[in-house]
Amino acid sequence: MKNKLPLTLLGTVAMAGSAAAADHISVHHMNFEEYGDKVKAADNIVSFEKNFGLDWTLNGEVGYDSVSGASPAWGPTTPSAGSEDLRERNRRTEAAQAATTEVIRAGYDPYRDAYAIQPFELEDKRKSAAASLTYRDSKRNEWTFGANFSTEEDYESIGTNAKVLFYADSRKNRSYTLGGSVLFDKTLAFQEYSNFRNTQEWEDIFTGSFEAGLSQVFTPNFYTTFTLYSGYRSGYLSNHYLTVLREVDINGDGQIGDDEVFLGQDSRPDTRLSGGLNVQAFYNVNSRIVVRPRYKFFVDDWGVSSHQIGGKMNITITEWLTLAPGYFWYNQQGAGFYRDPSQKDPTFAATGYATSDLRLGDFTANAYELGLSLKVSSQWRLNALAAYYEQSNGYESRWWVLGATYEY
Predict the structure, then answer these.
(1) What is the largest CA-CA distance in the chain?
(2) Number of alpha carbons in the 13 Å side-chain half-sphere of residue 330
(3) What is the number of alpha carbons within 13 Å of residue 238 lying toward its C-beta?
(4) Which of 144, 265, 363, 403 has the most CB atoms around its CB within 10 Å?
(5) pLDDT at 6 over 60
(6) Measured on CA atoms in the order 303, 99, 191, 246, is the torsion positive or negative?
(7) How far apart are CA 38 and CA 99, in angstroms?
(8) pLDDT, averaged across the chain
């Protein structure tokens, strides 16, 4: 599902008033849906936290989620005229594949204007598990080590991570964090076209990330965290569920005819270096209201850069009810090899990187969310969250979360 679900501004859902420090077990269900009858997903997570004295904390979670619906991609619309027409389309597609090092996909249409963005059905299930162990030394510095694993039909991931938090002095008004993680993934990707089809083979993906942070308490009611982060990815970074249109001169006459446009595989560089800055503030307006403004900057060597600004609030209505509204505004400059599929000429050359993935284009976006935490007893807490996300290029999605936490 890593290549099927769109990236969102809000990332991992954080529930208002969730249990912290106390031993607890939580169960949450998330339902995600893209507008336009596209991708739908359901995610179920069971997590726990167990403290062993004051020095050790064990966290773990298991998840099961499913994806269904349709993923939009380029496809042909001209129906086949019979077996001879199918053989001719195969011959032309093989000729196009022989003329480029890029992957040409099955689905040739003899008329360039007959290609259209269409929904292609998908269905998958994912199982995941993660755990982390935190140790606090005599100065209450924290050392955390974790591992995670997930598997699905066409994607496998295994990784490990570590993070250390240490205080500048005994007053604990300032702390520093250093953290890093590595992922070793595999994805089932389409290979070069041959004999009417594209076979699939497993391709490797490596992801490494590092962050360094500073937290500063300014007053009893106000503190801020500053985090510099970086990431490096290598391997198969293309999205094999997406296609592009490529012009391939198969007859060698130096011109592109109406019948020389072919479906190509989404194609991206095999490395990606990224980094940025995240600034998060926490301000207690009074005993009932906490404001959490945030700014995040991101840049990579694909040409993508973005700014995100917004925040969330925790509003204590009563001793048992807390609301958490949130809003984020996002602006992105797209990758240098992105082309909008709705533009007049969305085709690419026979070779070179190419994507029509809306998530890598130029856009602005708005994200809205409202969380609720209801303490029904001294041990039970119910959580809920609803969110809506829209991009200026027409993409829209929404999701909601329901969950319960039991403290023991």
Answers:
(1) 81
(2) 26
(3) 26
(4) 265
(5) no
(6) positive
(7) 34
(8) 93
Q: Are 208 and 180 in contact (CB under 8 A)?
A: yes
What is the rounded radius of gyration, in angstroms, for the C-alpha atoms of the chain? 24
Question: What is the rounded average pLDDT of the residues 207-224?
Answer: 97
* Phi (first) and psi of residue 317, to 5 degrees: -80, -50
- Position 21 scores a pLDDT of 62
Note whether 30 and 8 are within 8 A (CB): no
Instruction: Confirm if 174 and 215 have CB atoms less than 8 A apart.
Output: yes
Nearest to 23 by CA among 379, 320, 322, 382: 379
For residues 406 and 227, what is the distance between their CA atoms, to the nearest angstrom? 32
Residue 401 has a CB neighbour count (10 Å cut-off) of: 21
Amino acid at 347: T
| Contact assessment for residue 57 and residue 51, using Cβ atoms and an 8 Å cutoff | yes
Give the CA distances from residue 38 to residues 2, 134, 346, in Å, rounded to whole numbers and listed in that order: 16, 40, 22
Contacts of 283 (CB under 8 A, 6+ apart): 221, 222, 290, 291, 292, 293
CA distance 180 to 24: 26
8 Å CB contact between 243 and 74? yes
Q: Which one, of 302, 338, 353, lies nearest residue 100 by Cα?
A: 353
Task: State how far the Cα of 152 lies from the Cα of 158, in Å rounded to an integer.
Answer: 12
Distance of CA 75 to the CA centre of its chain: 25
Distance CA 278, CA 280 (A): 7
Residue 135: name the closest of 58, 48, 218, 245 by CA: 58
Q: Which two tokens stand for residue 99?
A: 């003329």
Per-position DSSP letters for 167-221, written without gaps between them: ESSTT-SEEEEEEEEEEEEEEEEEEEEETTEEEEEEEEEEEEEEEEEEEEEEETT
Name the residue type at position 381.
Answer: R
| Rounded distance between C-alpha atoms, residue 338 and residue 267, angstroms | 10
- DSSP state letters, 11-64: -S---TT---SS-EEEEEEEEEEETTT-EEEEEEEEEEEEEETTTEEEEEEEEE
Q: Taking Cα atoms as reference points, which of 146, 153, 151, 152 lies closest to residue 130?
A: 146
Summarised one tens digit per residue, pLDDT across range 68-85 is: 988 889 999 999 999 999
Helix-, strand-, coil-residue percentages of the chain, each rounded to 5: 5, 60, 35
Q: In the 8-state DSSP scheme, what is residue 103?
A: P
- First-to-last alpha carbon distance for the chain, in angstroms, is 34
